[in-house]
Give the backbone structure.
Amino acid sequence: MCTINNETTIMPSDRESHHLSSTSTLFTRQVSCSVAAMFSLVFTLSIYLSMKQMPLVFYQTHNISFENVQLARTLEPPREPLCSPAQRIVFLKTHKTAGTSIGTILQRYGYTRNLSFAIPAKDTPVFHCCRYFKRTDVYQYTEQEVQFEPEFGNQTWGFNMMTSHAVYSRPEMDAVVPDGLYVTSLRNPVDQFESAFVYFDMMKQAKITTNNNTNPLSVFFTNPEKYRKRIRYGEKQVQNGQMYDLGFQSQYFSDPFYIRYKIRQLEREFDLVIIKEYFDESLILMKKLFCWEMDDILYIPKRIRDSGFRYNISENLRQNIREWNHADVLLYEHFNRTLWRKIEEYGAEFWQELDAFRRRIVDVTSLCEAGSQIIKDNVHHMNIIRLGNKTNFCRNLLRMDGEYTALIRKRMQVKEWRNTKRNTSISDLNSKQQTVKGNINSTKSKLSTNNSPISDTMNGKRITRVRKKIFKKIVKKIKKPVTKAGYKAVGKP
């Protein structure tokens, strides 16, 4: 304890000089006491905070009541979560870039949580292949007043998710999914072009004839302009297909300024670009962006191309593909660098999460693929995995994007039918109630004008007992159609 004692014997001759020295000494002692008290308080507080983080063994060893510590913890205010799960997402699905796997992840998350989806108005997997997306392409879309002011942050209009193929058009997509996070996927242009060439059967469309040992891709690049004019199905994927899906028009494919300008624009507008070659790494970044759980991003590859329909690509052919798809090459290289920059910013825990995620994928795959069947798609040369494990967990994981879209469309149709039926029932009931009220009023007027005995009161007229019985019978007959058997009353609006 800090004490200050200033009672000393002072000679009269030294009184003035001693007064000055004692004053400075007293001030110094007061400052020293204040500093000591402050350090004591900080030390006590640090011990208290460290005890809250200590394990149970420490409390038992030092005879500290663990129940009291737990009680102190329960009195603390609850901590709010650092983020909330994203539920407004636009996935710009590009061709042959693992879009099906990503789309089913998003569809599974939204479908199991009863979120709304923007799906094509026509019963097709794409909105439109050869023009910009329009909001009128969406099934059950209705024009509504769009608010962009900050106070309208929690939007009640629009859809939650959009995952089908579409050509990127930001204003139209914002009108459908307001305040959404934007995600897309890219792939090495050489592999993406080769995959699209096989998937859209461009060899047959371009009428390329080869010998058994001739690579059709090599024949295509002998005169690419000649062969591209013959291709109709998948024509926009013949050159720079990824850039086209992201809204870049073909007349600017050879303009370096427009290409780089478009890439900078996409970097500003997209929250994440997934790279197919680093798919698992990209999903870890997506999990953090969406504030989702590990099980929310699980996947099982479902459409694997038959190994017999893969072309060998020589170094010379690889260079031809890169030159032909120059815009896609610049796009891919830019966002590949962006991906690794985000991984570096994530920190050391990124690799721990990646390792845990891959172990989880192995366990889930062995569980759900047990007893499954592989069905060949001879049109697109794919091997499709069909469900073996019948649990809902595996059923949702192995469901294809087209199956999810069909289920979502059916759910929307049922909801629309119920709303229509309810509105029709309410309008019919209102009209019948108005008819009943009119008949009752007319009956009252007839009874009041009848010459039967009626006794007057101060507040109006009182109908005699006989006339009351007649009145009740008439009213009962009028109300009978409203309450007849089989009619389900909706209730007053």
Remarks:
- The chain has a mean pLDDT of 78.
- Residues 401-449 form the longest helix (49 residues).
- The first strand starts at residue 89 and ends at 92.
- The two ends are 77 Å apart (CA to CA).
